[in-house]
Amino acid sequence: MAARAQSETQVLVRTSGLGKAYPKVFHRRDRLRALGRLLVGRRGADAVRVLEGVDLRVERGQSLGLIGENGAGKSTLLKLLTGVLTPSAGSVLVNGRVGALLELGAGFHPEYSGRDNIALSAALYGLSAEETRAKLAEIVEFADIGDYIDEPVKHYSSGMSVRLGFAIVAALRPDLLITDEVLAVGDESFQKKCVRWMEQYLSDGGTLILVSHSMYHIQKLCRQAIWLRHGRIEASGGVFEVTQAYLAYHERKTAAQEVAHANATGTGTEFELVEFALNGESADVPALIEQGGSLVARIEVTSRFGREPVIALGLSRADGTTVYGLASDMDGRHPRRIDENRYAVEIVFDALPLLPGSYLIRAHAMDSEAMRLFCTVERGLTVRGESRELGMVRLAHAWRECVDAGSQRGAAP
């Protein structure tokens, strides 16, 4: 019983069946109808459900990333957690002092100076006048906006507003820090300062909920992640697993359009790509391999007149950057004829050196002279693993201690 009570004290955020809905309002009569439903405690069946059935548990010391497309419900969830909005369904419980950066300039009085807004924000967080004065110099230094600290906030740029807001939160060191795309605003030096502060905050036992479209920042700062899609939790778990699934989803989303465009460049149906399997799986789902794992691509092409095709394979990163490409004629290989009008090849990549992330693999059917492209099929590839290395591939390397150049020059031959 005592252990359970101790575990509960570590829970900073808990939601159960959390949901938020808004009435559809297009005309004045819609507003009156929505108001009437609210007065009688009813929710219209035509309400827009922005968030639905979200169960969440965040314990002290955790770092959670929220990802998803625009309109997925991320900002709504944060506003429910901070009490800015009230839920339409379910419950939300938040323990401890919360520091929130949800919108640019939120909570600032535009006519007050930055210095006055510091005092106002500190008072709202429960600090006394003495505590505020003690932290004032620290906040001003962190914000680093110069003389603008004594200018009205309405004269601030978006980056300056975020600087001041983050400086206030950093000085307060809340139990739970909630941020919504704060790293997307401001110059690079300030972003680095924020990242360093958050890393130190987490190492000191702080708790973070971060919303960002930057998978780099999510992977760098968070250990867990939740992917919201259409207001519901699509996936949750380890940050690398969830972010890679999210990137693979975006690849599949654009694949049909890209493949249709590629096929439109073909000039006939003499050659048709009828099978494209990765590690034995031909279903149209991303292939999953561990970092350093092997990949076997099997491609089958039909040839209307029995002519031997050239079969090509291309690998690119999710953003379209080419990683590698090859064709059967480049290596002097001939596809195996498995019946009168069908050819097949298998390409094996042992110990694939790709870094964790999402990639696209395209198989192409070309004519015997490799002059015309007839068909293209695209598949996703997700490489799973944890790595903070940059780029697309991992190059074999080793670190060694430097030998003093002076001692080398003085050494005997």
What is this entry, summarized?
This protein has 413 residues and is α/β, with parallel strands linked by helices.
Q: What gross morphology would you assign? A: elongated
Share of helical residues: 25-40%
Largest sheet: 6 strands, mixed
Count of distinct strands: 18
What order do the SSEs take from the amino end to the carboxyl end, as H and E?
A: HEHEEHEEHHHEHEHEEHEEEEEEEEEH
Rg calc: 28 Å
The class by helix and strand makeup works out as: alpha/beta
Strand order of the largest sheet: 5-6-7-3-8-9
Strand content: 25-35%
Query: Could you tell me the mean pLDDT?
Result: 83
Poorly predicted regions are: none
Q: Counting H and I runs of at least 4 residues, what is the number of helices? A: 10
How far is the first residue's CA from the last residue's CA? 74 Å
